[in-house]
Specification:
single chain; 2 domains; five-stranded mixed sheet; three-stranded antiparallel sheet; 28% helix; elongated
């Protein structure tokens, strides 16, 4: 009988150990999935600072991004200019494109890029910059200043 009881406790212990391992594996798997989702959100190109320089008629955009090198270049893909019913202004959106958007995310980098607005005819306007699906920045761009000869 003692032998039977010994075997039974060993089987019970082994069974609970298997359940413990399964539970531990599920926790690790769920932690990994949650971490993966967070890393996608935190490692996308984001805006550190955006402002309009009236003196140079430029958007000054500082991007924070991850990659293997600091040599990413950023460009703007402009959307359609739309009239705003109230106030008589306009609105326009621009997508901020990263030249190395598929670069492996190894290190953090920050880069400031200046975008000339000399050719932007959609003024005055509310400009919305977008990078990645959930990151955007909106600012007001005034009417173009009249240049004195």
């Amino acid at each position: 009988m003692n032998t039977q009881a010994g075997r039974w406790s060993a089987v019970t212990h082994r069974g609970s150990w298997s359940r413990h391992r399964r539970r531990h594996a599920v926790c690790i798997l769920l932690s990994g999935l949650a971490g993966g989702m967070l890393s996608d959100a935190t490692h996308a190109d984001t805006f550190a600072n955006v402002y309009y320089s009236a003196r140079k008629d430029q958007l000054v955009v500082t991007m924070v991004y991850r990659g293997t090198n600091p040599d990413h270049t950023f460009s703007l893909k402009w959307g359609q200019c739309k009239d705003i019913a109230e106030g008589g202004g306009h609105e326009i959106a621009a997508e901020v494109l990263d030249s190395q958007w598929q670069d492996v995310e190894q290190s953090d980098f920050k880069k400031t890029t200046r975008f000339s607005l000399a050719g932007l005819r959609c003024r005055p306007s509310k400009v919305t910059l977008r990078s990645a699906p959930r990151f955007f920045y909106t600012l007001q761009i005034p009417e173009r200043a009249i240049q004195k000869p």
